[in-house]
Amino acid sequence: MSADAGEASADAEDLYVRLKVYEGRAAATSGVGKDLVNEPMIRHWCEAMGDTNAAYAGPDAIAPPTMLQAWTMGGLSGHSDRSGAHDELFALLDGAGYTSVVATDCEQEYLRPLRPGNRITFDAVIESVSPRKTTRLGTGHFVTTRMDVRADGELAGTHRFRILKYTPAATYARTVAHPPADTHPRADTHPPAVAAKQKPRRPRPVINRDNAGFWDGVARHQLLIQRCGACGTLRFPWLPGCGGCGSAEWDTVEAGGEGTVHSYVVMHHPPFPAFDPPYAVGLIELAEGVRMVSNVVGVPYDKVRIGMPVRLEFQRVDEDLELPVFRSLEESTG
Ligand code: ZN
């Protein structure tokens, strides 16, 4: 181990000691649900989930246990009860270069049913901070927060929520000239500030055995649509089976590239570092009849309109990402 690596390792140890201090400290205290447990929220939840269980309707209705967290949510305006400890812990992690965050999992425990009229109160505690871990996403620390939810003062359930605060591996890797192929990028051997100056790259597509053929097509500048081997129905995005007849047999047809904007949204918020809002995200209806989400290019975001004719092209985003996008066929008149 080099002297530098030894120092970095000692720094990491020191940080972990400082992070551990936050275990057991309050993340939120004396929170109060914004609404009493109520029938309309229960009904909306059940409709959204497609849950028709009779226990959640009628005069003796209880709330679905999985709604536990819903009663504690602060909505857009938030709660004002978050403790300083939570912010301090995150600031400590941010300062050490672990600036990204991803929710990894949650666990709930149900101790008694919640009924309309119950008043919800809650407290949250920082339950644990893990040693430094390297994951496929990057290197960082897992932080587990436990919320105790009470109904009319009686403990009704707990909600554990785990996040990873990390330095992204991909962003970091670009700052290293030729990292050895068999080592993980290590956040502790280079200052994260170097990584932070680079504009993050666009998210990578998740390629798996169900959609690999699509991305193989993109690499050859072909937009491939799946066609059911039994009933001939075209489908997009790629799926292992036919939504019409259930058959797992399929082949592909290549899209001709003509389409129209079926619908679109303009993204203003939330900002993602790899994108420059505002930008339009289009739902493109291909001439073959299937629809796909993509970018509309060659026209300002505020000139995209429903029905606009577009044509497929392939856009190189960076050295190892190429995406199918759609160019407006209308002259941009400003
Ligand atoms: Zn079919």
Label the structural class: alpha+beta
Shape annotation: globular
Amino- and carboxy-terminal Cα gap: 60 Å
* Tally of DSSP helical segments: 6
CATH architecture tag of the largest domain: Roll
Q: Classify the fold: give the CATH topology of the largest domain.
A: Thiol Ester Dehydrase, Chain A
Number of DSSP-assigned strands: 14
CATH class of the largest domain: Alpha Beta
Kindly estimate the percentage of residues that lie in beta strands according to DSSP: 25-35%
Q: What count of domains describes the coordinates?
A: 2
- The gyration radius over C-alpha positions equals 25 Å
pLDDT averaged over residues: 87
What does this entry look like structurally?
This protein has 334 residues and is of the alpha+beta class. The protein folds into two domains: 3-197, Hotdog Thioesterase (Thiol Ester Dehydrase, Chain A, Roll); 212-328, no CATH class. It is 18% helix and 34% strand. A hairpin with a 2-residue loop joins strand 5 and strand 6 (154-168). The chain is globular and about 60 Å long. It binds zinc ion. The site of zinc ion has 8 residues, from loops.
